[in-house]
Structure formats: C-alpha cells, structure tokens
C-alpha cells in the first residue's frame, strides 16, 4: 500500500471521530505513522487531506462498480441493479464511519462538501437520472427526472438514517436488503409508468 493511501485510510477514522477542526495534524500523523512532511507532500495541507478523505470515503463505500444504463442496456434492469448497489453501499461496510464524517461536515461546513458533491455524488446522481429518463415511455423534462431520482434515493436513505427507529416498529421489515431493494425498484418503476399514463 502506498504512503498516500495509508494516510487516507488512517485519516478517515480520525476525522470521523473529531471532525476537521478537532483533528490535529499531530493526530493525523500519529494515526498514519508519518511525519508532517508526508502529509504536506501528498496532500498539501490538512484541508486538502480532509477533502480527499471525504470524497474517497464516499467513493469506496462499495467495492462493486456502479451499474449504469450503458452497462445493462435496459432501463428496468438498470434501475433494479442501481438500487441494489446503492442500498448495499449505504448500509454496509464503513457506512457508519462515513455518516459520522458527514455529520461533522454538515454541522461545521469546511467547503469540502462542494468537492464531494462535484466529484463523488454528482456522477452517482447523473447515472440514476439517465436511468429514470430512459425508463419513461414519454419523455420527462429535466426537473421531473431529477424529482423521480431524488424519490428513489429518499426511499433508500430512510433505511440508512432511521434503521434504529424502524426496528422498534412492529411489522416493519428492515433486515432483508434484497427484498427492500426489489420493492424500491418496483415501486419506482410503477410510479414512473403511472406518471406517463402507462400501466404495467
């Protein structure tokens, strides 16, 4: 593993625990077992390292590549695959650590969120919008496509942000991620078809 990657990996839990302002360069050096010169050489400064950690953490939530319309060629299959991929990355692996990182960033913004939005989140959202646009038998305008894409994401995120609460409710299944993904995809496909007057 490269020194740069080692620093990124070590910095994630430090920033997730303490936030950008709470994490000192000394903390980061100790966690990565490097000196300040290594951080400056690979990233320039703490702020640049933090922005890179935020983007890298989001990008590596899943080890599987994101499904796209170009990969699958058929919109319904692409949406189902995308939802399964998104649910898996939102609820598995290091999602909790990334959540902690995002809580710090949203409560004390540093400007790194703009980098994350452009480099990490925008490509994911664009891929979903392309699938939604292809799914509609009658062309939607851009705003409608975006709203449907946000609806898909929102259905996924309820299971991430409210899992603890949902587990306290009787009759709310939250364990079977495949069943959750299948339901979200089917409901979204039906909603798009309904909006265009096509019944499935």
Number of domains: 2
Total helical segments: 11
The largest sheet is: none
Give the name of the CATH superfamily of the largest domain. Answer: Tetracycline Repressor, domain 2
Round the Cα radius of gyration to an integer and report it. 19 Å
Describe the model.
Helices cover 76% and strands 0% of the residues. It folds into 2 domains: 3-58, Orthogonal Bundle (Arc Repressor Mutant, subunit A), CATH 1.10.10.60; 64-195, Tetracycline Repressor, domain 2 (Orthogonal Bundle), CATH 1.10.357. α1 runs antiparallel to α2 (25-32), α4 (46-59) runs parallel beside α8 and α6 packs across α11 (177-195). The longest helix is centred in the middle third of the chain and has 24 residues, at 112-135. It is an all-alpha fold and 200 residues long. The radius of gyration is 19 Å and the shape is elongated. The protein has 11 helices and no strands. It has helices at 3-22, 25-32, 36-43, 46-59, 69-72, 75-91, 95-107, 112-135, 142-161, 163-166, 177-195.
Outline of this structure?
The chain is mainly α and 200 residues long. The chain is 76% helix and 0% strand.
Write the layout of secondary structure elements.
Elements: H1 3-22, H2 25-32, H3 36-43, H4 46-59, H5 69-72, H6 75-91, H7 95-107, H8 112-135, H9 142-161, H10 163-166, H11 177-195
Salient structural properties:
single chain; Arc Repressor Mutant, subunit A; 2 domains; mainly alpha; 200 residues
């Amino acid at each position: 593993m490269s020194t740069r990657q080692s620093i990124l990996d070590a910095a994630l839990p430090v920033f997730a625990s303490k936030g950008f302002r709470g994490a000192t360069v000394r903390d980061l050096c100790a966690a990565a077992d490097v000196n300040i010169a290594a951080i400056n050489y690979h990233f320039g400064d703490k702020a640049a390292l933090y922005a890179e950690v935020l983007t890298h953490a989001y990008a590596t939530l899943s080890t599987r590549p994101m499904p796209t319309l170009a990969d699958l060629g058929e919109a319904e299959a692409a949406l189902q695959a995308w939802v399964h991929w998104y649910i898996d990355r939102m609820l598995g692996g290091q999602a909790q650590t990334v959540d902690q990182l995002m809580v710090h960033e949203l409560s004390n913004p540093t400007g790194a969120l703009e980098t994350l939005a452009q480099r990490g989140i925008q490509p994911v959202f664009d891929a979903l919008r392309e699938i939604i646009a292809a799914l509609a038998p009658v062309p939607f305008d851009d705003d409608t496509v975006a709203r449907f894409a946000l609806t898909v994401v929102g259905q996924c995120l309820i299971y991430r942000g409210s899992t603890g609460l949902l587990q306290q409710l009787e009759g709310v299944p939250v364990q079977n991620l495949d069943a959750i993904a299948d339901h979200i995809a089917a409901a979204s496909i039906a909603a798009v078809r309904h909006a265009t007057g096509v019944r499935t």
